[in-house]
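Model: You mentioned two targets. I'll fold them one after the other.
Researcher: Yes, keep them separate.
Model: Target one:
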Amino acid sequence: MIRPYRGAVLAGTLLLSFALGYGLAHNWPRFKNFDFKPAAIDSKKEFMVQDKTPVILEQVYTRCGHVTTSEFKGKKYLIGKSLSGVRELYPVRDGYLVWFEDNGSLVIYQRIDDWCPKDKNLCHLGTYKGYLAVYKGPSGNNQEVARVTKIRVEDLPEKIQEDVFNGKMEFNNETALNDVLESLDEYE
């Protein structure tokens, strides 16, 4: 006995669905331009970079740990862009973080896997397995060996040994370092 009602319910559902679809299609022009308002309005307006917006570039160099802060030189390309627009230009995958400070400044933070300009050409003498070695970067940072000499540290005069161990053999460039190494050739 339940079977006859089942067919009627199915027919009624199909008829109702058809009527709703037809009604929506017929009245769609009225709805498509309707300005729907969100139930809760976000009180936080999105900032835009303007002519007067201070834009700060903060660069962090991972090799030496130094941070440089300066005015961002490409500000003219950011004017009129929102935070999301600036983030598209300077994405996280390229080492950037971008945000607006409470004071309205835009900060572009960049992580650079290198030495800072001040330390980029520095090199120093250190030890590697008992031999005098040339390291890239400032004294105390023995992460990158440039080369190992044939000079045993124990064969050097005591004063030079102390200077090597105390990090006093730092040079502004490899030319200056090579001049010192040439004078130490007699200890090979």
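Model: Target two:
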Amino acid sequence: MAGRRARTGRGWDAGPPRTGDADPSVPPPRRRGRSDPTTDPDAGRQAPPRDEAEVAREICLRQLAVRPRTRAELAGALAKRGISEEVSAQVLDRYDEVGIIDDAAFARAWVASRHAGRGLARRALANELRQHGVDGEIASEALGELDEETEAETARALVERKLRTARGEPDAVFRRLVGMLARKGYPPGVAIRAVKDALAAQSAEAAEFADRLDADALADAEGDLDRPDRPLD
């Protein structure tokens, strides 16, 4: 129709706004969880720095929640997190005083647990305590609770358990079992005697082989089995 104005979409004939279209005359709603710097007095403020000793204590407690730790282990954890030596010493001294950390108790528990659970001998246990930072004198006291008789009994029990599934000629089985005990820290004499006695009780063939063994001579010949740098089982 001539003279009729085209619709602009903004006059009397404009259609209703589509869903999702923003009305420019209505301010957008404020989002929750965000502070408005024009109205929130705490906006832009930074949290005050935390006390270094408090941070150090939290680090120690998290470490101790996993398992008991030695003083050296906690000191290493604090150093990795950038705690100063002075603050570290203060916190650890306090933990020593109240008994939260106790290297002597740690060493005793470690020796008892690892000997019973893994059958480790004193040499292997001494190596592990050293790796955990236990002082040599404290380690010696803890290892002193494991006597030679108990160590020999454990060695024999380890051999008997392995013999149940061992396959091969007696001489090959003998070498494997002696090597197994050596890696667990047993001296050559203890290892050879334990295997010899266990073989003697296994079968006639193994007993005949065991009778030909000179445990003392073999212990001297196999002295390199007692090297502290050998890997442990």
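Researcher: Noted. Anything on target two?
Model: The CA atoms of residues 60 and 74 lie 6 Å apart.
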